[in-house]
Amino acid sequence: MHDQRLGLRRGPYGGGRRTPHHADRHEVLRELGVPEEHIVFVNFITVAEGITAVCERYPGVRIVTSAIDEGLSEDAYMLPGIGDFGDRYFGTNR
Questions:
Q1: First to last CA, the chain
Q2: Which 3 state secondary structure label does DSSP give 47?
Q3: Rounded to 5 degrees, what are φ and ψ at 10?
Q4: Would the CA dihedral through 38, 42, 48, 51 be positive or negative?
Q5: What single-letter DSSP state applies at residue 17?
Q6: Residue 29 backbone phi and psi in degrees, to 5
Q7: What's the number of domains the chain is made of?
Q8: Average pLDDT over residues 76-86
């Protein structure tokens, strides 16, 4: 039964400047015994670079997204993007 578990990793975006930080969260699921092939990363928006970064590090993880943005800016923000989602959601942008 243990090998039947599905680990859902959700996040507002997959790409941008924090992709390595988010990818580390897949490791937590693996440490809990969830096989990589049973991890699904669900996000709202991503970029090709983010998909590549996750797939290179965790080739068995599936990714579900609603949109793939054009690319990254020089500061590693998604373009055209939705702004800094965390700042906008929590009202911390100043």
A1: 48
A2: strand
A3: -115, 150
A4: negative
A5: G
A6: -65, -40
A7: 1
A8: 73
pLDDT grade for 1, boundaries at 50, 70 and 90: very low
Under 8 Å between Cβ of 89 and 66: no
Q: Is the CA virtual torsion 75, 78, 47, 32 positive or negative?
A: positive
Range of the domain at 80: 2-90
Which CATH number fits the domain that encloses residue 42? Answer: 3.40.50.2020
- The alpha carbon of 57 is separated from its chain's Cα centroid by a whole number of angstroms, namely 12
In sequence order, what are the residues at sequence separation of 6 or more whose Cβ sits closer than 8 angstroms to the Cβ of residue 52?
none
Written as six digits, the tokens of 59 are 């080739």
In SS3 terms, 63-91 reads as EEECCEECEECCCCCEECCCCCHHHHHHC
Instruction: Answer for the pair 88, 66: CB distance below 8 angstroms, yes or no.
Output: no
- Asked if residue 40 has pLDDT above 80, the reply is yes
Report which of residues 47 and 14 the model is more confident about. 47
